[in-house]
Structure formats: structure tokens, C-alpha cells
Amino acid sequence: MKQTEEEFKLSEVIKLTGLSDQTIRRYQEDFNIQGIRTQGGHRRFKREEIDMLLEAKRLKEEHGYSIKQIRSHFNGETTSEMLEKNEPMKTVFEKKIVNLEEQLA
Asked: How many separate domains does the chain show?
């Protein structure tokens, strides 16, 4: 299978993300990042999958999120633990709540 410009080899993904092969495998399983398998069994990744790997890495490194919290983030959920670790996000949500309460009053 010929590599298109949308697909990246595993070695390229490792360089782009700074993640190890083992971490990429784990993240694929934990966050349902499919990737593509060539006829020869080699893994290829699309740009959006690389972006998910980078986002998972950022959340873990910058905010100390657990695998469960990162999964929640990808599912569009927010947990109280996530709010506690991210004060700016907490402030934004608190302002939205006050705004909604004022609108209801």
C-alpha cells in the first residue's frame, strides 16, 4: 500500500509526538484511536489521530490527567477532578453558571 500524504508511518508519529511505541499502542487502546493497517501489517496514522495523541500527551503532562480523565475529555465530559486540576476552566464554568443563574432570575 502506497503511503498518501494523509497517512504517517509509526516512526514519523513517534518523532512528531515524542511518544514511545508502547505509549502509542496503549493510547490507541485506551482512547480508541484506530489507525490504519497496511497489507503488510504496518500501522499508519491520519493527522486527526496524531492530534488526539498530542492532546492526550498534553493533558497528561500539563494537567496530570489520568487515562480515565483523558477518556472523559475525548468523550466531551468534565469531571470534578478535571475542574480541580484546571483552574482557568473552572473559572470559565463558574462564570457561565453565574450568567445562567442571572438569566433565570
From this structure: 1
